[in-house]
Every structure is written in structure tokens, then in C-alpha cells.
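Slide 14.
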Amino acid sequence: MIRNVEYADRKKLQKTYLDGLRRYKCRGIPIIIDGEECPEKDWERIFEMSEDGGFYNVNADMVAGHIAAAIGAGLDIAKPNGQMMVDSGGGTTDVAVIALGGIVASYSMRVAGNSFDEAIVKYLQSEYKLAIGTSVAERIKKEIGCVFDPTEEVTTTVKGRNLVTGYPEQITINQLELFEILRPFAAEIVMGVRNVLERTPPELTGDIYENGITMTGGTSQLKGLDKLIEENTGVSVRIAENPRDCVGIGTGKCFDMLDDLKEGFTRASTYIH
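Slide 15: predicted structure.
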């Protein structure tokens, strides 16, 4: 089971970020939020924390998610060897090949955990006339969601509101029927990975086939996604330890690696994990 970082630990990460921003500013690099330079007194609003301690809506001129995820996953990004990352969170999936501290090729798509959750909600509404929230859909996805070699024998019960009667109702769904709903989105992620592989310089392609692909982000834990990528690319895939936290951990470390990063701190982004 993947260990979740406790709320207090995430608060420490938040403090690390803010301390890093101060060092960032001391180097003469402005902190930009919504197109305007943000004064230090307002930096706290850069980081909003959800109930489970997860960061969301991080808007600043900060480290690229690919670089942060790679560092948080324990990869040595300064090596000349090509390394491939697939960071799939809630809102986006980012794929990148990294070498010598910089991004060689990358691709970002708005297909990730939220896409799977919304598909489950719509499926239950149309097929069973059952209304559920996205939090219930996420639970279903975690319990029986699978995008590779599913089975009808794995099931879960779902409670919601019947759209016809308006009364509470409970149904049972199986992994195989859910597979049909999730498969198109998983296929898009696979296509994104193949897109980056095809644009990777030949001299780095061999490194990737030797080193494999590292996956981070909460959606990397969707059952079978790693196997699906392996089958369609021929490249081995490993899921990083504590994948949900790699971007956060890596961003904190990046502030101590400014001189080693070729192009890490380059763009404004929103990361949802």
C-alpha cells in the first residue's frame, strides 16, 4: 500500500516552498501570479491545501512539473542519459524525456484522474439512472478501476440517488463494465507517451528502453495503466514510491538545485494531484 504523507508533513513542504521562493527572489527572479509580480506578503495564497493535505492550484513562475516529478521520484536528472517521466495527476498528464537537467521532448494532455471520475459519473447516470458525486466515482475507480486485463468477478457496490424515483438506491457494478468506460482515456495517455517517444532523439531512445519509464501522480496508481503502457511501447514501466507526492517533494528540492537545472524554472503552470 502506498503511504500517504500526513497533513503536517505537507505543511512542512509548503514552508519549504515559501522559503525557496524567498531564495528565488534573492537571486533577482520575480514571482509571477496571474501575470503580475506578487509581493511577498501575498505568497501564502500561492498554496491552497485540500482536506487530505494535497496541494492544488499552484500558480507561479515555478519549476516545470516534469522536472519536479523526476527529482521527487529519485532520478538523477543531471545525467546525460535520457529518462522518461509520465506524471498523471488529477487534471493533466505530462510526459517528458529529460537529460542533462533539461526537457528534451514533452507532451501535455488534459486527460487524467478527473477524466476517469467524470466518465464514471456519466456512465452511471445514463446506464443505471443513478446520480453520484465525483468523490464516489473516485472511490469506485480506486476499488475496481482497471485498464488492462479486467474481470467480471471483481465488483463493488455503489449508493446514489435514483434519477427517476428520487429515492436512494444501491447497485453493483463489475470491473469489466468499468473497463469499457475507462479504456478510451487510458488509450489517450498511451498515445501521449508514444508521441514523445517518436520525437525523442535516437541517441536517447536506447537509454529509455534500458532505463524504462517512471510514472508519478495519483493516476499512475490506476490498476493496469503501467502494464498498458508497457504493452503498447515495449518499454518497462515502474511506479515511483509515493507517486502522489513526487511533484511536491521534487519542487521543494529544486530550490536547492537552481544551478543544476537547465530549464526547470521556466513557466507558469497549474498542478492538480
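Speaker note: Helices lie at 7-26, 65-72, 113-128, 134-144, 175-199, 202-211, 225-233, 246-254.
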